[in-house]
Amino acid sequence: MNVLIVIVLIVLNIQARSFKQILVHFPSMAYASTFNALYYYLCKHFLVWDFKSKYLSTRILRVLHIFIATPLLVLLYLTKFPSTSRQQIQYVINWVIASMFFEVVANKTGTLYFNRGWNFGWSLLLYIKMYLYSYFFRRYPVLVLLMSIVTTISALAIFKVPIRKGFFYGPLLLFRNK
């Protein structure tokens, strides 16, 4: 299912001719992927959602979603973003509804699971945030980064993500005091 999602996103991006706009939307794509990766880093010992596959390892699935699916999704979303306010609101609503539909299917088929109080309501908020922040990132990057930091810290507190001694093991080990 995860590979199918990537294939569908590639085909839809080809049909929309969105790859021509990749340089324009790259900062927003990188922003969304970075915060997706940050989730996996900050919550590595306390995941609230994750992907499963019978055929792919968890690491491959995460790389697939962080570096391919998320950027392709954001690119497709931003490529056809309408210019009038009324159309923009409906556009965001449509994308959130479509994303929720695919999330429900992924959850029902067992390729996506929830833990520790995460549910479809939280996913709905995450999609709204992802789509709005991705759109506004190009115009107001500092503001969006500050809002992202605030919402990330809030989520860590709401879900009581433990920060332990071993938290810095991994990529940040180089910066640890010896």
UniProtKB/TrEMBL annotation:
Kindly provide the name given to this protein in its UniProt entry: Uncharacterized protein
Q: Which InterPro entries match?
A: CBO0543-like
**Residue intervals passing through the bilayer:** 28-48, 60-77, 89-106, 118-136, 142-159
Keyword set, alphabetical order:
Membrane, Transmembrane, Transmembrane helix
Q: Which organism is it from?
A: Anaerobacillus alkaliphilus
